[in-house]
Write a structure and sequence with these properties.
The complex is a heterodimer of chains A (about 110) and B (about 110).
Chain A: E1 5-7, E2 10-13, E3 19-24, E4 31-38, E5 42-50, E6 53-56, E7 65-71, E8 74-79, E9 88-95, E10 103-104, E11 108-112
Parallel strand pairs in A: 2-11
Antiparallel strand pairs in A: 1-3, 3-8, 4-5, 4-9, 5-6, 7-8, 9-10, 9-11
Chain B: E1 4-7, E2 10-14, E3 19-25, E4 32-37, E5 44-49, E6 55-58, E7 61-65, E8 71-76, E9 85-92, E10 96-98, E11 102-107
Parallel strand pairs in B: 2-11
Antiparallel strand pairs in B: 1-3, 3-8, 4-5, 4-9, 6-7, 7-8, 9-10, 9-11
Classes of the chains: A mainly beta (about 110), B mainly beta (about 110).
């Protein structure tokens, strides 16, 4: 298996633009997590899904952020409109079951100018 | 979800010195996981502790889970430059919320 695949690896966009980050979890994994990492706030859990259903989105910063998981092999995190303070590395992770190791993607480095 | 506090935030050691990072939770954890993130990389799973008082070793790394299952530690004996990175704990119920991490730097 190729592991968790995220795209793009890098994204530079202008303030106000829509940004869509993509994640393909490991096949067979039924949990998917989205994280945001910054120097100031560390590794924050934004939202997680179980069997494609959002379970906890309390970490989503505000209405500008939305996440979907239309099927077991694909998830998106969308920011609309983007702001400079959204600049961060966004990680997707997946795992099987409720208490097993999680596998992280390589991350998407987002820069909003 | 539960919050886990991790200390110290930074640790700089001379190569060969020992290193310890601590993770504390206000609530009892079902289990705890430790991850390592190399500079510029992504978190990679190291180990999971489940039982009260559990101790596990991986070469120079020793992981402990407290008796009350509210705290954990990671100890590295005789650090090497390859140990550089940020070490995270995650209090693990179904969600997976990470501590702030401890950034370790090692001076050769």
């Amino acid at each position: 298996d190729a592991g968790v695949i995220q795209s793009p690896r890098h994204e530079v966009t202008e303030m106000g633009q829509e940004v869509t980050l993509r994640c393909k979890p490991i096949s067979g994994h039924d949990y998917l997590f989205w994280y945001r990492q910054t120097m100031m706030r560390g590794l924050e859990l934004l939202i997680y899904f179980n069997n494609n259903v959002p379970i906890d989105d309390s970490g989503m910063p505000e209405d500008r952020f939305s996440a979907k998981m239309p099927n077991a092999s694909f998830s998106t995190l969308k920011i609309q409109p983007s702001e400079p303070r959204d600049s961060a590395v966004y990680f997707c992770a997946s795992r099987t079951g409720g208490s097993t190791e999680a596998f992280f993607g390589q991350g998407t480095r987002l820069t909003v100018v | 979800g539960q919050q886990v506090m991790q200390i110290p935030q930074y640790q700089h050691v001379q190569e060969g010195e020992d290193f310890t990072t601590y993770c504390n939770s206000s609530t009892t954890l079902s289990n705890i996981q430790w991850y390592k993130q190399r500079p510029g990389g992504h978190p990679v799973f190291l180990i999971q502790l489940v039982k009260s008082g559990e101790v596990k070793k991986q070469k120079r790394l020793t992981f402990q889970f407290g008796e009350a299952k509210k705290n954990s530690s990671l100890h590295i004996t005789a650090t090497q430059t390859t140990d550089v990175g940020t070490y995270f704990c995650a209090g693990n119920n179904n969600d997976m919320r990470f501590g702030a991490g401890t950034r370790l730097t090692v001076k050769p």
